[in-house]
């Protein structure tokens, strides 16, 4: 049974809060988080900065993996490769992540970020799982 | 001759300002930017979030490339792969980026992020260059 | 309408022939190629070498992209990131590739390599399209 | 002290032999391997296939890592991202690989492939180390 995000105490995720990332689904090796572009998240070209979209992916992969980990396990991002397909000026982003493969120490995940129907970014990442 | 960062008007880089990324060197296909970890940039594990380090890389690569672009050219991140080597709890991060290869439309860049002497992350990325 | 692979003269694809890569589907931004492990494609650990699986991906992405290119266009691999999920000792590999996004100069593709039902590798790549 | 490649019995590396990859240096977390382009390694465009260059990288990273592993350890490629900078029609390729970071289970490596003085490809990869 998936762990509940409500276990996470308020203020426990400062960077997610700073960006305004909100999780709307979580469990069984999957997660979905959302973000609304804000004026302080744009880059010098006037579009949402790639680091914001990347952060959704990194958070989303972590949450998807966390949902299939044991109580005494923690995880860390080893590497993520992200490809940008469209720039974002307005709308609402949703990032869906899922565990593709989970071995004892290594997990492989993928994410897709959409702005409405449009795919904005795709990512493939590797996480390391260890015992506390 | 490299373009000057001082051309960028105050407030033109909202997301960089939000994270506290400061450029300390720029020109000839290279850039260096710095960031000091803050409490609102950490992840639920209490370490600097990977998205902050990634954002230094994305900004840094863009600046390095911008220094060798023509006046009428713009660039966009196609993809970046980042690998994390160490977690960061305190210190001061410096991200050095450089253009490895510049063709007419495509540029390849690499970045290394250090915390003092320690390498924290390495990245390899592709940017697209186009005319305004 | 997709171009036909039968246009490619015998002997035009020496490295694909060396590895024994056979295309079984091609068109509309997709391709499928297959390969049977052979004793001369294994690595020192006795499993199919990762370079063989990578080569299926690189060929497969190229073919998928070629199917949506104009007559006077050529393409080149910019970069590919491949993640291995399972090692292969026997069986028959099938690599399915598809174009996720096609802009004028840049295309983004993904591939999945299976050994029977089992996913063996996933890849995300970028290609450059240019006029002859 | 680095293990010697001469421990590897003839015929133990069938795919490396098929491609003509020859190791010329190995030890202390580094390796160097070479390859001469041959007519049966080219792609339909008449240039050396990217899978050949990738295979040099995968072999080279494995060898570099193997040089710092214990007797009872084995390694497997988790993922590699390779970026191509120049196409190769003739010359002689040399791939230099090195371990950037070695933790207990995870190693991060980078490779640079040159054709004479020209950089042909760069790669960044992750390997998993386990006990036999």
Task: Explain what you see.
Four copies of one chain form a homotetramer. By secondary structure, chain A is α+β, with helices and mostly antiparallel strands. Chain A has a single domain (14-131), classed as Thiol Ester Dehydrase, Chain A, CATH 3.10.129.10. Chain A contains two helices and six strands, in the order αββαββββ. The first copy, chain A, has helices at 14-19, 50-66; strands spanning 22-27, 30-35, 73-84, 93-102, 106-115, 118-131. In chain A, a hairpin with a 2-residue loop joins strand 1 and strand 2 (30-35). The longest helix of chain A is centred in the middle third of the chain and has 17 residues, at 50-66. Chain A is elongated and about 40 Å long. Mean pLDDT of chain A is 92; it is low at 1-8. Chain A binds chain B through residues 8, 12-19, 39-45, 49-52, 54-55, 58-59, 62, 74, 76-84, 87, and chain B through 8, 12-19, 39-45, 49-52, 54-55, 58-59, 62, 74, 76-84, 87.
């Amino acid at each position: 049974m998936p762990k509940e995000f409500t276990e996470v105490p308020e203020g426990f995720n400062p960077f997610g809060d700073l960006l305004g990332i909100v999780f709307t689904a979580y469990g069984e090796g999957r997660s979905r988080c959302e973000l609304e572009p804000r004026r302080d998240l744009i880059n010098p070209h006037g579009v949402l900065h790639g680091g914001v979209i990347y952060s959704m992916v990194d958070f989303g992969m972590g949450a998807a993996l966390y949902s299939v980990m044991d109580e005494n396990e923690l995880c860390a991002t080893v590497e993520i490769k992200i490809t940008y397909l469209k720039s974002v000026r307005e709308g609402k982003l949703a990032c869906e992540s899922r565990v593709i493969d989970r071995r004892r120490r290594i997990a492989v995940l993928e994410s897709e970020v959409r702005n409405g129907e449009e795919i904005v970014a795709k990512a493939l990442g590797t996480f390391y799982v260890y015992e506390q």
